[in-house]
Design brief:
mainly beta; five-stranded antiparallel beta sheet; 11 strands; globular
């Protein structure tokens, strides 16, 4: 293959799928592809979930989803985000999974308007939150347990997450995905079925 064509092809390949379990009711996956980033939230039915670019709610560029809507918004105080006009999210879709639902959206990595924040290549600080949406009414998240901060990596060299296929709960054994998880994979026992060496072959 022509070298220039090979390089061009590699540059257009999507980055590795990654994911975080940030709350018992909220996990998300993301993937970067040709200048865009796609998120898929998995949320408890009857709740809302959101991530935002920034280190606090003040001035954050937020992306909040319920079972039927996804909106890009702005926060200027400790209140629910205000939807932006125009919206820059594309490819919005939803799926009901019984006790959970998924919400998917895509946006450009670059800021589409001056009021938006960019997803910078490499580690990007985000905030996340989740709360009740019972009866279609968004209520504030719990002050200490319904919100938090994380870093996501949008670089090509980032490590893919180890997902648990068919289960919205991530694999807590992967420390790079869920470093705060209560159960880690010690990885110390390579062959747990044969912990004792063969003593009858000591001379070899």
């Amino acid at each position: 293959m022509n070298l220039a064509l090979l390089v061009a092809t590699l540059l257009t390949l999507p980055h590795a799928l990654q994911g975080l379990q940030v709350h018992a009711d909220f996990s998300f996956e993301w993937v970067v592809d040709q200048g865009t980033i796609q998120f898929e939230y998995t949320c408890a039915t009857g709740s809302w979930c959101a991530v935002g670019i920034g280190q606090s709610m003040m001035g954050a560029n937020t992306f909040l989803c319920t079972e039927t809507t996804c909106e890009e918004g702005s926060t200027t105080a400790m209140t629910p985000p205000v939807a932006r006009t125009p919206q820059s999210l594309t490819g919005v879709s939803f799926a009901s999974l019984g006790a959970t639902y998924t919400a998917t959206w895509t946006r450009t990595l670059a800021a589409p308007t001056p009021q938006d924040a960019a997803f910078n290549p490499g580690p990007t600080g985000i905030i996340w939150a989740t709360g009740s949406n019972a009866g279609g009414v968004i209520t504030p998240h719990a002050n200490t347990t319904g919100r938090g901060m994380s870093n996501i990596d949008t670089s090509a060299s980032s490590t893919p997450a180890t997902m648990n296929p068919g289960n919205p709960t991530m694999n807590p054994g992967n420390a790079t995905v869920n470093p705060g998880g209560p159960t880690m994979d010690p990885g110390a026992t390579v062959n747990p079925g044969n912990p004792t060496p063969d003593p009858g072959n000591a001379t070899v």
